[in-house]
Amino acid sequence: MHAEGSSPPPSDSLPIGGLGAGTLLQNAAATQTPAQSRSNKRKRPGGAAASPAPSDVNSNAGNGTNSTDLLATSRADLSSRPILTISRGPIFVPVSEGSEWYKTEMIGVNRIGYRYIPAGINPPGHAVPCRTIESNPTSFRVSWEDRSPLIKVTKDGLSLAGFKGFRSARCNAPMREGKWYMEVKILHGGGDKTSDDSKREGPHVRLGWGRREAPLNAPVGLDGYSYGYRDKTGEKVTLSRPRPYGRPFGTGDVIGMYISLPPKRQPNKKDPLDPAHLKRERIPIDLKGQEVFEILEYPQSKEMAALMDYSGKTTSSASVPSSNKKAANGKPTDRNGPAPPSNKPSTPVLRPLPTLPGSRIAFFVNGEPQGIAFEDLYDYLPLRQTETQQKNSRKRTREGVKEHRENPFDDGTLGYYPFISLFNEASVRLNPGPSFDFPPPDDIDDVLDKMGSPKSDGIAASTSLPSSSSLLNLEIPKEQDVKPQIDPTSQEAIPPTPPAPEPPKRTWRPACERYPEFMQEEWDFDALEEEEAKVELAKYAAAEKAEEEKRKQREKKRQQAEARRKAKKEAALAQQVADAASLEEERARTLERERFASLPAPPPGTLYGPGGHFPVVQPQPSPSPLRHFTAFEPEGSVDYENSPAPTYTSFSEQLGGQSGYTSENHEPEPMDQDPDDLDVDQDIEAIMGSPSRPRTPA
C-alpha cells in the first residue's frame, strides 16, 4: 500500500521489498580504470569531486566503505541481484539519542559535478539493464540525494534542519509547466536564538525556487539559477542582489510558495541540436550495495556567470584618448603608423539567455499575498552548444570504457524545484498539500494582477501591462435567452430567473500532485529508451551479421590465397628438386666423361660399354659360290681357301676375341664339354648350316 500522494509502480514490476530486506550486495564488477601512460609531468591533484566512473581520474572506487563500482551490464552478471522497485535506502541514523532529526546513509548524496538517482535492474528480456525506481516514502518530499549532507531530515522527508552556515536542499520533483503551490512552516528562523545557542548569528531561512545548476552549499538567490525570499528583511533576492519585496517572517509563520510556468516548448524535429530534445546521459553504478544512476550535473554557463559581474567594466571596443607620454626610448610614438598588434584575447561572444514569457513567482505570508516577486524567469533548458562544444562532443570515447559526457539536451529532470536554504540551526516543515493551513485563492494570478507588477529593478523583466496569462483568463460573457416567458394560465409574463453562479474553478495545483506525474514521465522515458535500445540492438545485430559475412568472405579469400601461395611454393620446391636432380645427373655424367677421358684412346671401330670397348663387327654378305671354281681342291692345297661365309667356328672365334676369353688370356678349358653346350652348338649349326666347301669341277 502506497503512502499518500504516491505513484503506482510500473506494470512489469515485482512485489516491493521492504526497506532493508535482504543483505547488502557485494560489488558486482571491478571498476575498469583505463591504463594511463607514464608521464614525466608533475602530478597535481584535481579540483573536481571524485567519481566512481572510470573517466574520472579521482575515482574513489574500491576505497573501503565508500566503495563505488561500475555496475556490470551483462545479464549474466546481474542475474544474482534482486529486482527491486523501491530503493533499499536510506538508513536513518539519529543525530543524538532520542532526537527527531536524522542523518541518512546508504544513499548517493549529490556532490559538485555529479548527481545520483536510484536505479533498479530490469527483468530478463529487456534491452536496457537498469531503469528508474523510487525510494521511500513515495511522495512529494525533500530529495534524499539532492541536498547538502549537513541538512538533517525526518523520516517522512517533510521536515528539515540546518547546521553551520547556509545549506540548501531541493525537493524530489521539478516544476516544468503549469501553476503550482505549496506551504512551508518556519519551525525555527528569523534570527531567533534559543537559550543554549552560543552562536553569534541566529537561525535564518530563505525560501524560493531553483534550477538544477544552483549550488546546494549556498543560499537560494546566490546566482541567476534561483530566486529567493529572505526572512530577516522580507527582501527578494537573485544574483545575490536583494531588492525590497514583502514583509519579514520568522518562527511560526507559514510561507506560501507559488510558481507559474508557460507550456513546455516542443523540440524542433528538423533541428537535431535543439536543447529541447529529450536525451539521457547516465551510467549505472554500484554505490554501497545499491544500484544507482550517476549523472554528470549540468554546468553553469559563462553567460549566467557574466550576470554576476559587479565591476561594471564595459565590453565595448570604444576608443580611448591617447596619452602624451613618450615611449621608453624617449622618442614620441608614431600616431600615424599602423597600430601594433594587440595580444589581448578578444571578448567572447555571449549567447542570448532565453526567458519563459509569462512566468512568475510569488509568496504568501500566513495567507497574505506579497505580490509578484519575479517575472519572466530564465528558461531552464540548457543553452545551445557552440561550434567548439559540438566539435568536442564528436570525439569518440575509448572503446570498452564507459565515460561521462556532458548532456546538451533536456534529460527530463530540468525545471524549477522548491529550494529551501537554512542558516545555522534553522528548521522548517514542508506542506505540499492537498490541504493547506492558509488556502490560497482559486485564481492566484488574478489576485496578483490586481496588486500590480513589481517595480522594474533590472533583474527580472517587468511591465505594467497585464500578463498573457491574465489575458487568457478573462471571462467571456455568455449569451442568455432574454425572450419573455408567458404563463399559460394567467397569460402574464414570467420574470426570467437569473442563472445559477458557476462554482469557482481552481487554476493552480498542489505540489503533491507533481510527484506521481513526474515519476510517470520518468517511466515513460524508460519505455522510450527501451524501444530505442531494441532498435539499436537490431541494427547492431544486423551490422554484426554483415560483418560476420564479410569476415567469412575475407577468411575464404585468405584461405584461397593461402592455398595458391602453398601450391606455388610446392611447385617452386618441386622445380628446385628437379633442377637439383638434373644438376646432379649432369655432374655424374661429367665425372664419368672425365674418368674415361683419362684412359688410352681405343682403336677406331670400337664400341663403349660397361665392360670396356669392343671392336665393331661389320656384317658381310655371304659371297656367291659361283665366283669360285667348282673343281675340288683338297684341303691343304695351294689353291684351297676357306669360305668367307661366317661359320660357327669363325663366329665363335670372333666373339671369343671380342670378349677376351681366348686361349691367349686364359688357360685351356678341359676337354670335357658340357652336354648343354653341345646342344647349343648343334642348334646354331642347324640354323647357320654346315661350313661350305668349294666344289671342284668334275
From TrEMBL:
Record's compositionally biased regions (Polar residues): 24-38, 56-69, 313-326, 644-663
Domain B30.2/SPRY: from-to ranges: 120-315
Molecular function as annotated in GO: transcription cis-regulatory region binding
Family that this chain belongs to: Belongs to the cclA family.
GO cellular component, one term: Set1C/COMPASS complex
Chain residue ranges for the region called Disordered: 1-69, 313-353, 388-410, 433-512, 542-698
PROSITE patterns xref list: B302_SPRY
Bias type Acidic residues, positions: 670-684
CDD domains, A to Z: SPRY_Ash2 (cd12872)
InterPro entries (alphabetical): ASH2 (IPR037353), B30.2/SPRY (IPR001870), B30.2/SPRY_sf (IPR043136), ConA-like_dom_sf (IPR013320), SPRY_dom (IPR003877)
Composition skew (Basic and acidic residues), residue ranges: 398-408, 542-564, 584-596
Full protein name: B30.2/SPRY domain-containing protein
Superkingdom, taxonomy of origin: Eukaryota
Composition skew (Low complexity), residue ranges: 46-55, 462-474, 572-581
Location within or outside the cell: Nucleus
PANTHER family in the cross-refs: SET1/ASH2 HISTONE METHYLTRANSFERASE COMPLEX SUBUNIT ASH2, SET1_ASH2 HISTONE METHYLTRANSFERASE COMPLEX SUBUNIT ASH2
Keywords: Nucleus
